[in-house]
Amino acid sequence: MSDQITEHRLHFKPAEGFRSRAKAVVDTPFLRQSFRGAMDFLMSKRAAQFPDPEELESLRTLGEQIRQYNLARLPDLLEQLEANLTRNGVRVHWAETPDEANAIILGICQQWNAKLMVKGKSMVSEEIELNHAAEAAGISALESDMGEYIVQLAGEKPSHIIMPAIHKTKEEIARLFAEKVPGVDYTDNVDALIQIGRTVLRQKFMEAEVGLSGVNFAVAETGTLCLVENEGNGRMCTTVPPVHIAITGIEKIVEKLDHVPPLYSLLTRSATGQNISTYFNMISGPRKPGEKDGPEEVHLVLLDNGRSQAYADEQLRKTLQCIRCGACMNHCPVYTRIGGHAYGTTYPGPIGKIVSPHMLGLDATAGLTTASSLCGACGEVCPVKIPIPELLMRLREEAFSAPHPNPAMRGQGAGYSPLVSAIWRGWAFVYRSPAMYRAVSWLTSRFNWLTPSRQGAWTSVREPLKPAAKRLRDRVRERG
User: Fold this and answer.
1) 2-11, 116-125, 185-194, 380-389: least confidently modelled range
2) Is the CB of residue 100 less than 8 Å from the CB of residue 301?
3) Taking residues 386-404, what's their average pLDDT?
4) Are strands 253-254 and 217-219 parallel, antiparallel or unpaired?
5) What are the extents of the domains in the chain?
6) Is the sign of the CA dihedral 62, 68, 73, 75 positive or negative?
7) Residue 38 pLDDT
8) Averaged pLDDT for residues 401-410
9) Each residue's pLDDT tens digit, 302-336
10) Residue 301: pLDDT above 60?
11) For residue 449, is pLDDT > 80?
12) Contact 393, 350 (CB under 8 A)
């Protein structure tokens, strides 16, 4: 079965194809309706969890303060976390790039002669494309989160960071299970499909030499890894196999256990509209002498992958406040119409547009910075008050301004066009001079018939812009 799962290799898709991928979804009414219905459902569930606007705003402010407090102390907290985890018996590894992270994880697997790695939900493992690296090394990596398991069977990437298979219908999943899982007949009964998945995965937990998980919060003062989940697969991955490997970005750290409950409350209510998740795991070390269960070894891989670049800039550092709830996606008028696959990156939607440039470079993601209406919905619902629209404007400036000798970001100036720059300089010159503005407006109104019918991307979905035959000042003058 693992051979069937790993037969497809998928990689990041270039941002240049975003427009065509988005159009393909928009041109498919069924997909449009599915995304719209799913997002409306998630938005209503979240709204029901925050009936008191004052309580919500107070909690959001607290969440923002906690994240900013810990980010301000990030270097020291990382050292403290490493020291306390090491004292607890957890082996800490540092990775600057996805390749380094994959090498560390696969090196541990090879030390244990592992043939099967069973994985709990981890967007960071998606970020480094661990499954592909494991396949190349002859190790089967099996997703155990039900949504991740479904998209893995389908040879796809998750389309949402919380609900990976939200783009799939039960009928599609039924056909997928019937085709990919040996001995399974077609059924579109949801309970039966879930039971099929659990039956397959339960045996794999027992067979795997290595279990891998993500981390929601890493507590520096105690050396504790906190894991939020609903299915119990995370608990199985972290306790049944003899080796547990956790992987997380360097920003997922808090100083104290006291900082976890407010963030946990914001996470579950913002992500899935739950008061609290089904499981909350706190892992502080491997199995101790005399204990009957738990892994023999626990490893933590701390990944940078562009995060230190964001951290170095005071404004861009706010990107790292994210707790990966997905609320910004659920409320985004762009994401709700095109889904996650159109973006072509691990993290789609508003948060993906401000995170991905640090991971992949602006030269690969400049087009995504403009894939937003800047309506502000993402910033209004973010539980830790990340100013996403403000950061998108900053990234646009970095992407489309002239290349700088000491850029703040990798790929700065990737979208720069001397022609476009000259046009905007001309526009600024006209608008700075009242006399020039009057002259230009007079000419454009008299010769508006020369306006081109094609105006780039604007006329791909809109009527062409055409100056009025009479200026406002002319109309006012005629009326006396």
Assistant:
1) 2-11
2) no
3) 95
4) parallel
5) 2-308, 418-478
6) positive
7) 87
8) 91
9) 999 999 999 999 999 999 999 999 999 999 999 99
10) yes
11) yes
12) no
Would you place residue 151 in the very low, low, confident or very high pLDDT band (cuts 50, 70, 90)? very high
Average pLDDT, the chain: 92
* 331 φ, ψ (degrees, to nearest 5): -105, 0
pLDDT in tens, 48-66: 999 999 999 999 999 999 9
Total residues belonging to the chain: 480
Above pLDDT 90, what percent of the chain?
A: 75
Six token digits for residue 420: 């476009």
In words, the CATH class of domain 2-308 is: alpha beta
Lowest mean pLDDT among 91-95, 139-143, 445-449: 445-449
Place of tokens 């403000």: 390
Per residue, the 3-state secondary structure of the chain, as one string, reads: CHHHHCCCCCCCCCHHHHHHHHHHHHCCHHHHHHHHHHHHHHHHHHHHHCCCHHHHHHHHHHHHHHHHHHHHCHHHHHHHHHHHHHHCCCEEEEECCHHHHHHHHHHHHHHCCCCEEEECCCHHHHHCCHHHHHHHCCCEEEECCHHHHHHHHCCCCCCCCCCCCCCCCHHHHHHHHHHHCCCCCCCCCHHHHHHHHHHHHHHHHHHCCEEEECCCEEECCCCEEEEEECCCHHHHHHHCCCEEEEEEECCCEECCHHHHHHHHHHHHHHHCCCCCCCEEEEECCCCCCCCCCCCCEEEEEEECCCHHHHHHCCCHHHHHHCCCCCHHHHHCCCHHHHCCHHHCCCCCHHHHHHHHHHHHCHHHHHHHHHCCCCCCHHHHHCCCCCCHHHHHHHHHHHHHCCCCCCCCCCCCCCCCCHHHHHHHHHHHHHHHCHHHHHHHHHHHHHCHHHCCCCCHHHHHCCCCCCCCCCCHHHHHHHCC
Evaluate whether 118 touches 211 at the Cβ level (below 8 Å): yes
Phi, psi of 386 (to 5 degrees): -70, 125
Kindly state the tokens that stand for 346.
Answer: 């691990």
